[in-house]
Amino acid sequence: MNIIFATNNRHKLFEVQHLVGNRFKLLSLQEISLSGEIPEDNTTLEENALAKARYIYNRVHIPTIADDTGLEINSLNGEPGVLSARYAGLEKDDEANIQKVLNRLKNAKNRSAQFRTIIVFTWDKGKERLFEGKIRGEIATMKAGSNGFGYDPVFIPEGYTLTFAQMPVELKNTISHRYKAFSKFASFLNSNFPK
Description:
Blueprint: E1 2-5, H1 10-20, E2 25-27, H2 45-60, E3 64-73, H3 94-104, E4 112-123, E5 127-139, E6 155-157, H4 169-175, H5 177-192
Parallel strand pairs: 1-2, 1-3
Antiparallel strand pairs: 3-4, 4-5, 5-6
C-alpha cells in the first residue's frame, strides 16, 4: 500500500518508514511531483494537519498523512504553538525563534512546556483519523547541544536533565512527541490494513 507523506524531509520520511514497516511504502511530495506551498495558515495544529492532508488527498486520491508540531509554553499562554516554525518571522529561522522564546521567558519562574504533534491520515474517499503525541518538559535558561533542530537546544523533557539537542538521536527518537504520534499511526495501520 502506498501512502503519501506530506513532506520532502528525507530524514523524517526514513524515520517514519521504519516505524510503519515494509508493508506500507511512504512517498514524499517530491516523489509524486507535487510542488508549491501547501496551505498552512490555520489557528491550530489540528486544522493545519487536516488542511495539508485534505489538500494532497483531493489532488491525487492516494492515502495521505500530514503532520504539524508545536511547542506550547504555559507561561506564554501556549505560544508559540501553531506559529512555532515562524515565531520570530516568516523566515522560519530556528535561532531567532529560540532567542525570542528565551527573551520572553527571561524572568519567568514557570518554564513548563510541552511539544505536541498531530498527524492526520486520510484515505478511502476522504476518511480521516487524527493521532496525537506529546511530551512535557521545560524550557532551559540557555541553549545546549547540537543535535536535532528547531527548539531542541532549549527543551528538556520531563524526567531528564539534558535538552533534546544534547541527547543521542536514538534516545530522543524513542521518547519524542513525534515518535509517540507516529507509533499510534503505525499501530492503526497494522490493525486496520492487515495483510
